[in-house]
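Our consortium's second objective concerns turning raw sequence data into structural hypotheses that experimental partners can test. To show how far this objective has progressed, the report includes one record in full. It was chosen at random from the queue rather than selected for favorable results. The single chain below, 79 residues long, was entered without modification.
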Amino acid sequence: MTVQITIRNVPEEMRDELALRAAQNRQSMQAFILSEFERILSRPSNEELMKRAAERAATFGSRIGSDKIVQMIREDRGR
């Protein structure tokens, strides 16, 4: 069974960008947004990723500290 979702107060610029991206993909805006929802939901949430990371660290131990990880991310971003 499908349901309808209404999203209020969408800025006009955002609606226009959604319409443009839908057209570029040769989709209706409805089909485009639905496919984006499916793409988002096919990935694990941030909470799930953190849970998995904690489980792996508990199982295998952590070899790199969080400070080093943050440093590596910043270096990768050119900061």
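The partners drew two points from this record. The mean pLDDT is 89. The chain has two domains: 1-43, 46-76. Both points have been shared with the crystallography group to help prioritize constructs.
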